């Protein structure tokens, strides 16, 4: 069972070196002195890139660590039989259970990816895992508390929860129609079938200290593996923010459709952790439509630049496209409907 983790451990130090070199390079960029003449603008852009990158990365790392620890716990302490026992067999109840499972895990869009991959390894059906992957970043307890703190006990809080569950369930149901793991997942995320029960029996009978050590080892391996995707995604998001003025998007605050598209695009570009995005959305509440603010709160945790890059470490390219397009279309439809028909 742990052969894959041990094989990856051989490359651990190369990944650590990559982390350190990139972090050091970004820190140096952030402290570079202002350059004279025509290079001043370049210096300012580099400084902005460095500041945004460090903000995104430092914000996301704790939750990536939580997700990889949860992944290690699932691998060591949860066996396939127990997982299958608690997952409803029919598609509708299955995807609903997968979406609501997000209430149990305090992980954002960074931490949910390695956890979902581990659940796929354990045999979680695709449609259930997809619903969990999309819903968990916005339904975890920390996000709910932060949304309540920002908007109070009112329609925005309930609409965020309800729309997140609805979109995750619909997307999960789409994947329930004949999708097979080998056509959707990369080999590293395929369900482990051969020899799984025997290996799990050996792990279950091992001393607690040894099992805890295995959890830490697996979490460390996945942290550096998924962290490399996080670094790339954070760098892309930082580059876009440094090059594209946000004023171009913030100027599109009117109109039932245009305002939604503007904040959806802003959510993707900013790549803010879902645990704090409610406070950013609160700043838009006075000038943007209600539907567009909800689109920011619902779509952002499902899809942003860093999560798209991390998805590519679990799913095949076509599947990544579906995981972007389906939630995007459903979010736009729901947000425009709210703008046209509800007066909140």
Characterise the protein shown here.
The radius of gyration is 21 Å and the shape is globular. By secondary structure, the chain is mainly α. About 45% of the residues are buried. It contains 18 helices and no strands. The N and C termini lie far apart (about 50 Å). The protein has helices at about 5-10, 10-30, 40-75, 80-85, 90-100, 110-120, 125-140, 140-150, 155-175, 180-185, 195-205, 210-245, 245-250, 260-270, 275-285, 290-300, 305-310, 315-340.
Topology:
Elements: H1 3-9, H2 12-31, H3 40-77, H4 80-86, H5 91-100, H6 112-121, H7 126-139, H8 141-151, H9 155-175, H10 181-184, H11 196-205, H12 208-243, H13 247-250, H14 258-270, H15 277-284, H16 290-302, H17 305-311, H18 317-341
Give the mean pLDDT: 80
| Total number of strands | 0
Distance between the termini: 52 Å
Number of helices: 18
Rg from Cα: 21 Å
Shape: globular
- The low-pLDDT segments are 1-10, 194-198
Name the helix and strand elements from N-terminus to C-terminus, one letter apiece: HHHHHHHHHHHHHHHHHH
Oligomeric composition of the shown chains: single chain
Number of domains: 1
Helix content: over 70%
Overall structural class, as computed from helix and strand content, comes to mainly alpha
How would you briefly describe this protein structure?
The protein is mostly helical. It is built from 18 helices and no strands. The protein has one domain (3-244).
Q: What labels describe this entry?
A:
mainly alpha; 75% helix; globular; disordered N terminus
